[in-house]
Model the fold of this input.
Amino acid sequence: MSERVVVITGASSGIGAALAERLGRGGAAVVLVARRKDALQAVAGRCGERALAIAGDMTDRSEVQRVMDEAISRLGRIDVLVNNAGRGISRPPSQLTDDDIDEMMRINVKAALYGIQAVLPHFKARGTGHIINVSSLLGRMPFAPYRSAYNGAKHFLNALTSNLRDELRESHPGIHVSLVSPGVVRTDFWRHSLHGGPDTRDLPFSQSAEEVAPVIAELIESPRPDIYTRAGARERVTKYFGEVGEDP
Done:
């Protein structure tokens, strides 16, 4: 891990901050990206001497390019990009507005896409790299109606991840593309959700960000296409799809 340069978006709190701290303690150079400069710098202070905080809006394509260019200029290269920036919503399908849908796509899909497209030329030139997209268990089974547009955006991100992996498999086999699907995580995610929502710290079967971080850290060490962060999640998804739909 000590030889890697890892860019983490959404790194000012939650999973992103926990991952940055864990990787930093392991000696990695971590580039922390989010809009809140003060919060970023506070996290960077806990990530060791090789931490670099770059404030930027990942929903702005030009800002994303600036972040990647600065990371490469300051640290020489990027080895791993963790697309972790995201936002939830609390609104059922019957009440969704155009703005609701646009906001979910902008933060949960476009931010990841911009990061992918900005870092890919660098990875292709080096013949190696690792893109990790942080999705959600709701991107596998959309069982929470009040998260409707978020569920849809994460399904889109899942498809994008899979298609990118297929696109690169033959031409650039040294570039890994991974999807991570956490379940409920005890962070301030609920506090920043559009239209509010339940406090995730009160929901059952939750994990802390500090429990999710080592799963992603291990994925960086041993790249795989698709992982869950909690034991039993794969079985839940299989059971869910076994109970929906019928053959003709």
